[in-house]
Amino acid sequence: xxxxxxxKFAHVDLTTGTIGIADIEEAAFKKFLGGKGIATKLMWDxxxxxxxxxxxxxxxxxxxxxxxxxxxxxxxxxxxxxPSSGRHHVNTLKAPLTGSIGSSNSGGNWGAYLKKAGYxxxxxxxxxxxxxxIVAINGELKLEDASxxxxxxxFETDDILKEKHKTEGVKLSVCCVSKAxxxxxxxxxxxxxKHRAAGRTGVGAVMGSKNLKAIIVGGNAKVEIAKxxxxxxxxxxxxxxxxxxxxxxxxxxxxxxALLVNIINSVGGLPYKNWQSAYNDKADMISGETxxxxxxxxxxxxxxxxxxxxxxxxxxxxxxxxxxxxGPEYESIWALGxxxxxxxxxxxxxxxxxxxxxxxxxxxxxxxIACAMELAEKGFIPPEDYAGIDLKFGSGAGLVxxxxxxxxxxxxxxxxxxxxxxxxxxxxxxELSMSMKGLEAPAYDPRAIKGIGLNYxxxxxxxxxxxxxxxxxxIAGCPELIDRLAYEGKPTWVxxxxxxxxxxxxxxxxxxxxFALGAGDYGDLLSTTTGWDIKDSDVLLIGERIYNxxxxxxxxxxxxxxxxxxxxxxxxxLPDGPSKGEIEDLGKMLPEYYxxxxxxxEGVPTPEKLQELGL
Length: 615
Description:
Layout: E1 9-13, E2 18-21, H1 26-32, H2 35-52, E3 68-72, E4 88-92, E5 102-106, H3 110-116, E6 121-125, E7 132-137, E8 140-145, H4 154-164, E9 172-176, H5 179-182, E10 190-192, E11 196-198, H6 203-209, E12 212-218, H7 228-244, H8 246-255, H9 260-266, H10 288-294, E13 296-300, E14 310-315, E15 322-326, H11 330-336, H12 345-358, H13 362-377, H14 396-407, H15 413-416, H16 420-426, E16 435-436, E17 439-440, H17 450-458, H18 471-476, H19 490-507, H20 519-530, H21 536-556, H22 567-571, H23 590-597, H24 607-612
Parallel strand pairs: 1-6, 7-12
Antiparallel strand pairs: 1-2, 3-4, 3-6, 4-5, 7-8, 9-10, 9-12, 10-11, 13-14, 14-15, 16-17
Helix pairs in contact: 1-2, 2-19, 2-21, 7-8, 7-20, 11-13, 12-14, 13-16, 17-19, 19-21, 19-23, 20-21
């Protein structure tokens, strides 16, 4: 096995209670690296085994014991000097929210501590007869009874397990499901370090369906690298680039991800009132600048990160008083705030805090509440269905009450917990769900920023910005500024960013590094770490391979011909703001994108493309 890896990928079968080490050839890591890449390969292998058993994948239940969930680090994780390398990726073969592949990513310490425990990842399958949790500390791997912590929220679980497994000289980290995961809600996330979330697609429900409450990790193992002196020089160069970049060196450290609130609103691309508009003249009330001025205690970096965009905040008074919380991030502020027209920062901070406590995804939850507010505003939901909730745009109290009911799986929250698409379908208006492939889109309106719309439509896991963040060139000018309203050239930008992002998620590093670092930088970092010869073209090729393999899995699950956007974005011009009158015209980009990808007109990889990629 190459350097940069621990050489052990744990395999846990909860049905039988057996623990072992998965047999994965080094060639697989060379083709897919770690993180999202190797997890996608392992999901494909598992899918083929299920098919061999006669299981119909199109009817496969995401909450079945036959589903698989994979926690994976990469060759960059926990390597001192590898920029922003504290993240980990979580994949599941089928996601309960979307019915497609489940994919999520989280920062904090957990990924680095898993690797320091001596493992590159953990594959979990089956279902335990009684609640269990996994312990991986200093090379030891075991299953423990979780009956006493079943029912505890994410904060309580973290405290209890760290106290129970306290080990001298070892820092510990916990990832767990809270009540939402235990209740198998499709909006459930997996929380680590109390306030970090593998939030999207409902991976928490899969973990809960297996009666797996938590995984506690820690250790003192060191990740060896192949060329220490050369790596040191590459690392020094990359850290200098991060420091000199305006986004990673100044903006994010000062204002966190919420610096984007005013920036995106200034171009008329900040979705407002469930995407009925994309401009809000009061947006500064919930900006990063306002968060820093009125609520910030200090920054909170992930492991090994120089950017330190995380926020520790407090609300000193009022009905939403909080002594300590972490976040909220830009996407959460938008979903729980601007999309719901809630300009009450304490209410947003409390709603975000409760999402972490209950273990639910802030983007899907906020977007679903916004959808419900529009449905109620237009009279599509009978008032008796949400009795006791102020379900009006702008109500901070209504927002917080909705989150409480979702987290506790009670009242109207039972319907909200299903996500915006199922909620809107329930009331006869699926067009009011701002989702793609069943996953709610994040905080950028493609009518104002054309490339991100193509990315939304073609993203494999659904409405997602982090698979191809064209906001970097379209808004931030990284690596160069391009016309946000132009269609020309956007298919190329989207493909390159999607491929590059896949490799970053296989490394596993923070995507914010890509504001300052390119494929060449990553090639140098990976080559000096692993000892493998990885050029900039290889960086993009690895990502392309991962992206195409995801498409193959989607096809097996029956997810086809869904590369589109909600009708509102395609047909309803923006009513106001700097991008007034704009719509998104996918037809001007999608055919060229498919051609560049080597896919059919239905978005399916051709045999020639698969052969080219070694698939």
